[in-house]
Amino acid sequence: MQRKGSRSRYFDQRIPKDVQSQLAGMTLQIPLGGATQPITITPAMAKRSIRVSLRTDDPVTAKIRQAEIVAYLEAIWRSLREDAPVSLTAKQATALAGFLYHAWANDEESERTVSGTIGFDGTWTPEPPPLPHEMAAAWENLREKLSALPADDAEALEAVLGPIVDRQLLAHGIRKVDSHSRLILLGAFRDALRDAAASRQRQAEGDYSPDPKAQRFPAWQPPGEPAKPATTNANGKLTLGDIVEGWWAEAKAVGVTQSTYEAYSRKMERLKEFLGHDDAGRITADNIVAFKNKRLADGINARTVKDNDLSALRALFGWAVTNRKLRVNPAVGITLRPAKTVRTRARDFTEEEARAILKHAADYRKGPREDAKTAAAKRWVPWLCAYTGARVGEIVQLRKTDLRKVSVMGGEVWVLTITPEAYTVKDKEFREVVLHSHLVDLGFPDFVASTKAGHLFITPDTKGELRGSWRTMKNRVTESVRKAVTDPRVRPNHAWRHTFKTIGRQAGIEDSVLDAICGHAPGTIGADYGEVTVAAKAKAFERFPRFNVDGPT
């Protein structure tokens, strides 16, 4: 869902009734793209839901983060339902401590989550950042304090490390352990954190060589489950392609889109090209770090590397670990801190740009060898985006049957139906948009009436697939629009969604109605109740002004 006034998407999941009483008072560490966000569950919240910003407006990244949170919460619910103490071996305790080590030793954002609990000098990075020798001293101080904690003093260890141990246990589906296992865990966590502090001290002193102690942590094996070997294919190895296809077999069954599959496939193929092999069992965390650094060196935006490349790899390898095909997820704990995006202009079109695009579209004429549907898309898609606030992909997939007349308010209006039945719609929900009177006057209904049955602007291939034509047509429209507006800082079709909202607000149209027209999620749970009717949308479009290509809007 989306909150009013925010571009980021939100995760919202109701808390199961049978765990609500146990959850009250706990602090959960919600995973968010390699970092974590602490959420303390109040008694009132325990009766409602877990709600957190996914900190992204990218649909692929949002789905990845949503899946990570769902998996984390399922482990929490499972652990709360299993009330009997669990017994852990020293190897299992060391494996759990390894998650803490990697979070701290790799300098990720997640270290700031646990740092407040530790409360030692080396856990806080003020602004501006301290000098390297100051950080080295801080990490040395932390290491010394951890070393001073006696390994057999459960009370002293519990005061410092208890909350962190509890969070790791919950995240792995364990509510509590017996007293012997608890002491082993506390000692293992102390040693892991001490080793991580030593590694960070070396880095602050300029030594970035791999830490040999990083290899001492075994793969996590849940209690009660026998160790299983990694699954291989007929050739004796598990390939990166095997992981993608295995993940996709499950993902498509729960509604993950084809575009997400294609995006994940590209990320894994890019990793394969970088490594020079596709043997998943040979890939290490160092390989993922090197891949990350290569992408950055190639000039790829840091946020793209963090939210797209690393998130996709983490999800894919995570699937392989969950399904016992790999023992370790090499992408866990690998992240970076992208700089804040610099925006030097509004995301809307200016009045001059809007007029230039629409005039270019209105004047467009079919080329001698140009396909009739391509010419029609260049003529009509910009105008439809301008008067509907729809995504360009939602417009290019329109069918003849998606436009109809509806009786409303003692008259008739034309209504466009934007539906996943035509091809694909974000969030998989249909919506109805009243056709602005200007589009009627320009002759869009007449154009639709003149077309053959089926899609207005795209054509299925010989297998009946639409994706190739759909993507090509979006590109053709973009190329055409770029002839009218060349500023690279504005997105040539998506900017209509911002422009539509801005003009609608200026006209006094309620945000709830604009959201319903554009297909935006309501800003609050309460706003999701009831419907914005065709009649309400028709009244809104009576206030929405006409675009004048020859003068001010």
From TrEMBL:
GO molecular function: DNA binding
SUPFAM superfamilies: DNA breaking-rejoining enzymes (SSF56349)
Domain Core-binding (CB) residues, every copy: 238-321
UniProt domain Tyr recombinase: residue ranges: 344-542
Stored Gene3D superfamilies: 1.10.150.130, Intergrase catalytic core (1.10.443.10)
One Pfam entry name: Phage_integrase
Location of the region described as Disordered in the Swiss-Prot/TrEMBL record: 200-235
GO biological process: DNA integration; DNA recombination
Keyword Kinase: no
Keyword line: DNA integration, DNA recombination, DNA-binding
Highest taxon of the lineage: Bacteria
Family statement drawn from the similarity comment of this UniProt entry: Belongs to the 'phage' integrase family.
Name of this protein: Recombinase XerD
The species this protein was found in: Labrys okinawensis
